[in-house]
Design brief:
The complex is a heterotrimer of chains A (202), B (69) and C (175).
Chain A (H helix, E strand, L loop, with lengths): L2 E10 L4 E9 L3 H22 L2 H21 L4 E8 L2 E9 L16 E8 L13 E2 L1 H15 L6 E5 L4 H6 L3 E6 L4 E6 L1 H8 L2
Parallel strand pairs in A: 5-7
Antiparallel strand pairs in A: 1-2, 1-6, 2-3, 3-4, 4-5, 7-9, 8-9
Chain B lengths: L11 H14 L3 H20 L5 E3 L6 E3 L4
Antiparallel strand pairs in B: 1-2
Helix pairs in contact in B: 1-2
Chain C lengths: L6 H11 L6 E2 L25 H21 L4 H7 L4 H9 L7 H11 L3 H7 L8 H12 L9 H15 L8
Helix pairs in contact in C: 2-4, 2-7, 7-8
The chains are: A alpha+beta (202), B mainly alpha (69), C mainly alpha (175).
């Protein structure tokens, strides 16, 4: 069930101003439709433009991830969040709260909110389009993840695998880098309780 | 968020277990029971999808099926 | 669940986000770095070619390269020099089905022999999902072409047919 969590604001890079948007807990078919009909063609279009055979071949891996997102979003075992603004889904996040546990030594084995997917729409991505539109989607979704963790009494503990292009953001954040996770071929980051409280502080 | 209320009747042993677990996991009894519910749902979903759930000993690699439906 | 934050908090974090990006978890777009050949790791959620399929296709790839070389009457060393690739890599591609041919090697071979690059890439076993038809043809081709002696007329015909399959529109990598 989808419910409105909060009225938020996104920063429009093109106009330099803030615009209203909505953060939802849960997603519905309209989000999945938007995902399939607006996000995906945009990605495909860019891939064709790049024209690289490397990208075309790797497209198959991303295709399976697209299918996974739609399936996962319908399963009750994930907590889903979406940010909608300008009539579109600007961000999506899927969190697993049951099957992942903390790895940082002093909180090892304790429950945490594990971010399976944190994605902003293709037209917002700096390294993907020349003029990315909205900023703040990722930051707000991450805050939602930490807030959820607090709500579930996990004290803010959060875990995620960072996509390579996002390493620089997470490295500048107060979050623990536990290094390369061989099983996922990405860096694993985890927020300790102290880091989570610091992150939420105004 | 909508809230519903339920009265739970537990044996002494079950209550003791709940106290113990919630202390060990650092959360209230309510939060722990909520989490237990989610875990049960997660496992049930996987089994209904045809997956199997195992526990494995990290050293010996011995596997035991956890829930057989 | 309550969600509150101040404009100042967001602005503080925006300063950093504007410079980079926040994506985590499942990858929905190609790697920014071109020519990087990651082996894609898969969770239990997706189906993919099996290791056995991968070996079979690489046998086909190795056979193809070896036979094209034979057709053009080139020694391994001569081909390596003309196609500007290393002898060692070439030897590995021809004989070792556990070897992962790199993007540059495939590109050079594609250019030199005039064979479709996308299909070479699929044969190299790097992609997660492959065109079923290409896979079937590759397996059939490799089954008949095991030995290393000069091509018999029949083998030559089969080689030509396979090359045609690789270059035809039907066998192009599925989108």
């Amino acid at each position: 069930m989808k419910s409105k969590l909060a009225a938020v604001e996104l920063f429009n890079r093109l106009t330099g101003g803030f615009e209203p948007a909505t953060l939802f807990h849960g997603v519905d078919q309209s989000n999945l439709d938007n995902f399939e009909q607006r996000w995906r063609p945009e990605l495909k279009r860019r891939r064709d433009e790049f024209g690289s055979w490397t990208d075309a071949a790797k497209g198959n891996a991303q295709d399976s991830h697209w299918a996974w997102v739609e399936k996962a979003a319908n399963q009750a075992s994930y907590e889903a969040f979406a940010i909608e603004g300008g009539g579109e889904t600007q961000g999506l996040m899927l969190i697993d709260v049951t099957t992942h546990f903390a790895r940082i030594e002093h909180q090892k084995g304790l429950e945490l909110a594990f971010i399976e997917l944190l994605a902003t729409a293709p037209w917002n991505r700096r390294h993907f389009v020349n003029q990315p539109k909205y900023a703040g989607v990722g930051t707000l979704l991450l805050r939602a993840a930490v807030t959820l963790s607090m709500e579930l009494e996990f004290k803010g503990r959060v875990g995620l695998h960072s996509l390579p292009q996002a390493d620089s953001w997470y490295d500048r954040l107060d979050i623990t880098n536990l290094g390369h996770d061989v099983s996922e071929s990405m860096n694993y980051y985890e927020m300790s309780e102290a880091q989570a409280s610091a992150f939420l502080k105004d | 968020m909508d809230r519903r209320q339920m009265t739970l009747i537990l044996s002494d042993k079950e209550m003791g277990l709940l106290d113990d677990l919630s202390e060990r996991r650092g959360m209230s009894k309510t939060a722990l029971l909520r989490q237990a519910l989610r875990m049960y749902q997660s496992v049930t979903e996987r089994i209904e999808r045809g997956e199997k759930v195992f526990v494995e000993h990290p050293d010996t690699k011995d596997k035991a099926e956890l829930m057989v439906l | 669940m309550k969600f509150n934050y101040s404009r100042e908090w967001l602005q503080r974090h925006l300063v950093v986000e504007l410079d980079s990006t926040v994506e985590a978890g499942k990858k929905l777009e190609p790697d920014a770095a071109q020519g990087k050949s990651n082996v894609v790791t898969l969770s239990g959620r997706v189906s993919a070619i099996t290791e056995r399929n991968q070996v079979q296709m690489r046998v086909a790839l190795g056979t193809l390269v070896r036979q094209l070389r034979s057709r053009d009457a080139l020694t391994l060393a001569a081909l390596a020099e003309k196609a500007d690739i290393s002898e060692e890599e070439l030897r590995s591609v021809e004989n070792n089905p556990t070897y992962t041919a790199g993007p540059r090697l495939l590109f050079q071979l594609s250019k030199f022999f005039g064979v479709n690059l996308n299909n070479l890439y699929q044969l190299s076993g790097e992609t997660v999902a492959v065109d079923r038809r290409l896979y079937n043809r590759a397996v059939k081709y490799a089954a008949h072409s095991a030995d290393v002696s000069p091509l018999t007329p029949l083998q030559r015909a089969e080689l030509d047919m396979f090359v045609e399959v690789l270059n035809s529109a039907e066998a192009v990598a599925r989108e």
